[in-house]
Specification:
33% helix, two-stranded antiparallel ribbon, 81 residues, alpha+beta
Length: 81
């Protein structure tokens, strides 16, 4: 048990500790997870994302409610890609 002073003195086992996480390592891990998530989402897209640049006029239409078949349409200039 962890309450036993003999066991608690040597807990956790040194060979199972690993390196402490630093802010840079944490940032790198978060970046890697973000890249993996973006790749996963890109592969799951049922459509090919069109290419557009800042300054292009775009129209975005998305389904608000599938059961009610309602859509929202937004038109505007792309300010940042």
């Amino acid at each position: 048990s962890i309450d036993n002073p003999v066991t608690a003195k040597n807990w956790p086992p040194v060979d199972q500790l690993g390196d402490p996480i630093t802010p840079k390592r944490c940032r790198d891990i978060m970046h890697q997870l973000n890249v993996q998530e973006m790749d996963r989402m890109r592969k799951l897209r049922p459509f090919i994302m069109p290419k557009f640049d800042a300054g292009d006029l775009v129209e975005v239409r998305y389904e608000m409610s599938r059961s009610q078949q309602t859509f929202a349409v937004f038109q505007g200039f792309c300010t940042e890609v």
